[in-house]
UniProtKB/TrEMBL annotation:
Keywords: Cytoplasm, Histidine metabolism, Lyase. Pathway: Amino-acid degradation; L-histidine degradation into L-glutamate; N-formimidoyl-L-glutamate from L-histidine: step 1/3. It comes from Sphingomonas bisphenolicum. It is found in: Cytoplasm. There is a cross-link at A142-G144 (5-imidazolinone (Ala-Gly)). Contains an active site 4-methylidene-imidazol-5-one (MIO), which is formed autocatalytically by cyclization and dehydration of residues Ala-Ser-Gly. This is Histidine ammonia-lyase. Gene3D superfamilies: Fumarase/aspartase (Central domain), Fumarase/aspartase (N-terminal domain). The lineage of its organism: Bacteria, Pseudomonadati, Pseudomonadota, Alphaproteobacteria, Sphingomonadales. It is an enzyme of class 4 (lyase).
Amino acid sequence: MSQIILTPGETSLSQWRAIYRGAMPYIDAASAPAIAASALAVERILARHQPVYGINTGFGKLASVRIGDGDLATLQRNIVLSHAAGTGEPSPVPIIRLMMALKLVSLAQGASGVKPETVAMLEALLQHGLTPVVPSQGSVGASGDLAPLAHMAAAMIGVGEIDVNGQRLSAGAALERAGLSPLALGPKEGLALLNGTQFSTANALAGLFETENLFQSALITGALATEAAKGSDTPFDPRIHALRRQPGQIETARALRELTAGSAIRASHLENDARVQDPYCLRCQPQVMGAVLDLMRQAATTLAIEANGVSDNPLIFPDTDEALSGGNFHAEPVAFAADMLALAICEIGSITERRIAMLVDPALSGLPAFLTPRPGLNSGFMIPQVTAAALVSENKQRATPASVDSLPTSANQEDHVSMAAHGSRRLLDMTRNAGAVIGIELLAAVQGCDFHAPLASSPALERARARLRRDVPMLEDDRHFHPDMEAANAIIRSGALIVAAGIDLPGLS
């Protein structure tokens, strides 16, 4: 397992991606002085015996209630227990580990007032493979992702459940097995753990990384579909795209040119093709997928900044011993980024499905009906296209912006919220849908290219075809289609198609 050193404020997207994929995070030891200084500042602030939100007062609408010194530890424990009110299925382990790493980077910047032991405990959970069981629903993305982060904090104090290699244990038992003792929270610490956008950001980052994989895979399957339909590569001419000046469009056209370079299939119809223009699903790939690329990169910029920020409240400034209350926990930037990614995922699937529909229609593709050598007796790709249409329609419904919604909470103290949590959480389901659509296109496009034998496609696309044919033979007669779709889907989701093509495709960096 690879190791990632988290430098607070400077962790890169590639490092967050590696953690999401399973790398082990460690906090940079250089952050220790800032953490200690922040904790000492809280002690000095308390010594003044003045009311400071979240340190010696109640929370939210109860901020005006002063809490005595003897109850400060109970106050922090109570906020964790009362706020651990999530519901729904447990969040995936990779998401929660990413959320924990994000919280580490936030706390380690010395603005949250937590003790070094608290940061060490969170790091120890990651290093021992102890993942708090966090229900996926219950955050509105403002005042922080309170419920999800409370379930994380509850596990740290020995309450709730922890996942250990797929086995759910009581938090106390899991900590004891790992030789860890439950954490005793000090002043400010419960609130510091609960406030923040880390749950929403972790889900959005996961959606971003999966979308990048979909984007690159769909470039390959789109190029294969163009080959199968003997489409023109003129729309990929760099002069066209230079005039429009959209950077994603320019890069996408370059990738499509490289994917199809040296194709004998393309060369076979350069002089004898009666078609003047291809359907938009082929011709406008640079424009559509280029816009997707630009949108992905905009979302990535926002999320990279958010991942390195401090988003709890109040924030501690040791140089002046001040605790300043603000609203960094409001996840509007994350909500907007998630909505952009939802649009991108939806459009990747949408144009992909249109190419599948084009390939199965002999009037458009020039190929046998439904890509079967004996249509009528066999239905071929008739129903996989229907499945693709169903998945695309489902994603269209899920792409409705979440950020434009707001429902006041906490007796109207929190009167405008971002809805970033479910806006981000839907992304993985959407990528699964779009990935299945791309898998169907892979099957259909390779089948279409098979009808052009003995002509071969480009070297890059022939490698992609060979990767599929290693697991799925050509469809000669109808057979149980589901296993073929599952095999193709696995190739897409694993990134194996991108590796097989073996060329540099545009992405987030």
